[in-house]
Amino acid sequence: MDFQQILDEIFAEVNQLNLQGKQADYIPELAKINPDKFGISLCDLDKNTYHTGDSCEKFSLQSVAKVFAFTLAYQIKGKDIFRRVGVEPSGNPFNSLVQLEQENGFPRNPLINAGALAVCDVLIDELKSPELELFDFIRKIAGNPAIKYNTKVYQSEKNSGNRNRALIHLMKSFGTIHNDTEQVLDLYFKLCSVEMTTGELAKTFLLYANEGKIKKTGEKILTKSQTKRTNAIMQTCGFYDEAGEFTFKVGLPGKSGVGGGIAAVHPGKYAVAVWSPLLNQKGNSVKGMKALELLTTKLGWSIF
Ligand code: GLN
């Protein structure tokens, strides 16, 4: 397969489509990002990396980073993590309050906001220095000691994150959050503000294509079974109320974020990351979804 040629073709084809979308503006700092940015990177399990477009520019991972917090919590707690968060698709927007109230503050899955907040609460329960240890973990799986969060994006969401405050207070009222709500939110906002390039993100996601092992060092982060289950959660929950659409059109486990990034994996083959800040109404990158649809179509491979 000539991955480079395929990525270049996708880049040109998607740009020609004149797809419409809008940057996330409920986090003011994200509304400032140039809407024309578009990059794709793919890493295969033979350690080859392919890039096209704006693949060297850092962007805000937002909800893509929820996968890393969940991975660490799963590594620490094993299956007991599922006492704190479920594995069912929500079929609702990522920041919806309605279902959470109906289900007594127990979040459906770790990839919606409520679930990621519960995961951050677990990390605060379990770790001596939660922020340091979470970021060391992300740097380790990324194989990059320079990975950090963007302080402006973090502050911007901290100042404007009333919906997340509502979610966590609702959970706290049901007793499903143990720690101080502002402390949990703080860790969550830092997590969401992590920045990577598409190249760095694809490399980090190789873990999920490689049975839970860091490709470069061989270190096992999750067991084979835990990796399969993490991928299953991404497949069914990674795109909220558009998870069906992504599965239908792309056919890979993946995770989106309102920074416009999407990371996806084909287990045993490759990891891919796309970034374009223009979002559809469900908060998923319009060009990113199209690019990945074209990728699995051109390759003729999907997990189904
Ligand atoms: N930080 C964002 C929020 O909590 C993440 C949402 C997303 O990327 N879907 O709203």
Give the helix/strand layout.
Blueprint: H1 3-16, H2 28-31, E1 39-44, E2 49-53, E3 59-60, H3 66-77, H4 98-102, H5 113-126, H6 130-142, H7 151-160, H8 162-174, H9 181-192, E4 195-196, H10 198-209, H11 224-237, H12 243-249, E5 254-256, E6 261-266, E7 270-275, H13 286-299
Antiparallel strand pairs: 1-2, 1-7, 3-4, 5-6, 6-7
The protein binds glutamine.
SS-based class: alpha+beta
Number of helices: 13
Mean pLDDT: 97
Tally of extended strands?
Answer: 7
Q: Which residue ranges are poorly predicted, with pLDDT under 50 across at least 5 consecutive positions?
A: none
Largest sheet data:
5 strands, antiparallel
Percent strand: 5-15%
Would you write up a description of this structure?
With 304 residues, the chain is of the alpha+beta class. It has 13 helices and seven strands. Helix 7 crosses helix 9. The relative contact order is 0.20. Glutamine binds next to loops.
Give a short synopsis of this structure.
The protein has helices spanning 3-16, 28-31, 66-77, 98-102, 113-126, 130-142, 151-160, 162-174, 181-192, 198-209, 224-237, 243-249, 286-299; strands spanning 39-44, 49-53, 59-60, 195-196, 254-256, 261-266, 270-275.
Task: Describe this protein with a few key phrases.
globular; two-stranded antiparallel sheet; 304 residues; alpha+beta; 7 strands; binds glutamine; 5-stranded antiparallel beta sheet; single chain
